[in-house]
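Q: Predict the bound structure with zinc ion.
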Amino acid sequence: MAHYAVRTYGDPVLRQRAAEVEEFDGVLARLVDDMVETMYEAEGAGLAAPQVGVQRRLFVYDVGDGPGVVVNPRIADASGEWRYDEGCLSIPGLRLAIVRPARVVVTGQDADGEPVELEADEFLARVFQHEVDHLDGVLMLERLEDDERKIALKVLRDRAMGLDTTALEARLSGAGSTRVV
Ligand code: ZN
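A: Predicted complex:
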């Protein structure tokens, strides 16, 4: 198996809507295996295909119960509200406090094309929502409130220019050692 390089902020592939998976074949199975390996190597709890440059609607995850995959996922139901510090493998080093629904039901298919329905809350629900966003070309930055998003974007711009962003980062509300997705 081969692992991929994780695409990072600024790569246009992260801003495009991925296409539905239609072929459930050996190529897909291989992609899933390689994505799981890449996720583990990056020490992430989730990884969406666009993050490895593949414009297909699937993601892998492991929040401690072994690896899983959802192909062509859809958030079928969402409820509650939970503020949590998110981190993204594609935006290294930023932790952003983001409010999203606390519980979701995700429907989709497994790697064989069989229908699946998964209920999740708290961290797993957060992973699912973050990864489905990736498939729509949406980064966690877009889930921030305006003021905080401006700071986060300035941190990323300044970093790209090699500037010290320590003081700016201190103004962001996210903190801690959140597992990244
Ligand atoms: Zn991410």
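A: The helical segments are 26-41, 122-135, 146-160, 166-169.
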